[in-house]
Fold:
Amino acid sequence: MGDNISALNVIFTEFYYWMTVVIMFFIHVGFVLYEVGASRRKNHMHTLMKNTMAIPLVTVTFYLFGWWIYSAFINGPGIVEGGIAAAEFAKPWSPLMATHLSGPSEALGVSAADAALWHRLNGVFWAAFALFSITTASIISGAIIERARVGAFWIIAVLIGSVMWIIDASWGWHPLGWMVKLLGYHDAYAAGVVHAIAGGAALAVLIVLGPRLGKFRADGTPRDIPPHNPWLVAIGLFLIYTGFWGFYAACNVPIISPATIAGQITGDTWTTTNIYLTPTSLSAITFNFLMSLSGGLMAGYVISKGNAFWTYSLGLCGVIAGSAGNDLYHPLQAMLIGAIVPCIAYKLHHWVERRFKIDDAVGAVAVHGYGGFLSVVVAGFMLWGQPSSPYEGYAAINPLGSFIGAVIMFALGFIPAYIVAKILNGADLLRVPREVELVGLDFANNEAYEAAVADVNAAERAMVR
Amino acid sequence: MSTNGMTSWAVDLKDVGAIYPFQGSETILVILGLVFWVGWHIWQIRHESAELESERNRATPERARTFIDRY
Structure:
């Protein structure tokens, strides 16, 4: 650290990201409540543990290779010049991936420049990205409740959460990513980068997995399988909204000087930027987060005729709808986009359900997949011609680049998830046996619970005099 | 062409003001916002009235007792 202002800036930034990590944890509390609330009583513990164990599995693998992929794959590799980029600070054996102060560790290969930049920021950046990773995996979890094997889900969670999404982030959500350079891809709050890829992966797994028993009648029309506990679903979605404040804040760089952005921005005015290092403000995204959420809730209430499950879900879809461009939109633009996109996603959900017999238990493909895809496409039109980067030579934001980018995001989830789901299904590892699905996936817990209740009741009865 | 007038960030930020797209359309946006808000109330009240009317037409003493017992 050169001087006290620099030191304060680094420590403020460290604390800022640390706070976003804490707030983002609410997303996962919300996902767990939501999924358990949406599942039937016979599947509670299975649903709970399926989602919960994605947290450590994605965290550990994100430490081992995910964080390195983000900085190493910005050129493809092989799509633009440059190959695999140097990212020594992110390799799991780097001393900067551990307790480290601001000086160099020359004997261990840590340069003074790397140490100065990363010593306090590596852990909190890694953690914020790890929380994005877990979110991406969790989105898939909800769609496949009540019939998927946990082992299969956890493999898919690592594939999407620690490999595929971070490749797409490296390509399109990094200041030096090739999609930003070539396509002018702009996705400030990860509508495509997190949501579309997760929705694409969920759709692929659902196609291979098939619907829950009893979901479709003999004539092919879908049955409603209502959540066993709508209150839990509502609280879960409220907590997801809460966690998304941290998600949004974590997508920004809180304070940066023009000099740090290689002098591309002139003058001395420090600013907040998005992940591409182009200026925005926390105030702007606060306006737009609440307005797009409100647009989604109001339109969701109308389109679902007051259905609580869909109103809440489409509120979240409203936030996602604005997410690609919420760093730059006017709040009323954010509200209108947040209202229109969820209506399209809702209609698509029901059309796909009827037409292709896809049983998406929580509407994840609609809310995240279609919502995220459309968010990126809309941003291409709304922000047409604006610079995608402060650096020279980058493509401007444009509709075609955004559309191609949205397709890449969805496909990066869909294709690998489909292949792995097919392999798992071929090995009979994807779906629980029919007999177990009918009894409920908590068969072992239920029997143990009933035996324990009977045992303790018998013991207490024997004590009554 | 750029929807917010910015074609490069090689500028001094102290000279930059609004950066949202389609500047100058604020009045139209406010009108659209008002229409969305008022329209929502009109739809909601109509829908609620229709639902209540439908339920009133289904009402029987036996049905009322069933729901009272359900608490």
